[in-house]
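2024-03-11 09:14:02 INFO worker-7 job=invfold-0412 stage=load source=structure_tokens
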């Protein structure tokens, strides 16, 4: 793949993954990173940019008439839950799912962002940053542990996603609590 498409292979696959059907983008990004460590930040940025740009067609569909499409794909309860999430924390409601690997149905969140009228600029930035985190973490793990870690993590996430999401959420909450405590202590000084 690297020889055929060169450095743009990551971009093409990530764009196709977001615009069309699911592609093995995690595998492609980490393969590029593992084979060419010097350019790992470039591969991460290209894949994240392509993921954001490739999501624009689905955003347009969602903006034009996506509420009907979204309501057909998810339950009313889930629709309302996602809607509340976007109302409360629009940026994070898209960025956080963008960080998570399959089987999370990310395209539902892309549709929801358009249905709930998230500005296009914020939409693109949220996806770009979320994917940077996702591809960055995977790339670092591949550089430390080798390419077999992608399959191991994918299988683990598929079978234990509730536990993994709970641990990640607990970590984010702990970090936020410590950060708020530090800010409060600095404000008292």
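2024-03-11 09:14:09 INFO worker-7 stage=emit residues=189
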């Amino acid at each position: 793949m690297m020889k055929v498409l060169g450095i743009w292979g990551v971009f093409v696959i990530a764009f196709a993954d977001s615009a069309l059907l699911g592609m093995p983008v995690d595998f492609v990004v980490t393969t590029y990173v593992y084979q060419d460590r010097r350019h790992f930040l470039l591969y991460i940025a290209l894949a994240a940019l392509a993921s954001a740009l490739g999501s624009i067609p689905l955003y347009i569909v969602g903006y034009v008439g996506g509420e009907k499409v979204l309501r057909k794909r998810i339950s009313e309860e889930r629709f309302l839950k996602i809607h509340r999430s976007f109302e409360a924390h629009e940026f994070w409601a898209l960025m956080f799912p963008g960080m998570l690997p399959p089987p999370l149905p990310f395209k539902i969140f892309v549709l929801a962002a358009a249905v709930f009228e998230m500005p296009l600029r914020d939409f693109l930035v949220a996806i770009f940053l979320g994917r940077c985190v996702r591809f960055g973490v995977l790339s670092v793990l591949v550089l430390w542990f080798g390419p077999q870690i992608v399959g191991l993590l994918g299988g683990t996430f598929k079978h234990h996603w509730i536990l993994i999401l709970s641990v990640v959420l607990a970590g984010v909450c702990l970090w936020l609590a410590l950060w708020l405590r530090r800010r409060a202590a600095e404000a008292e000084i």
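2024-03-11 09:14:09 INFO worker-7 stage=report msg="The longest helix spans residues 148-188."
2024-03-11 09:14:10 INFO worker-7 job finished
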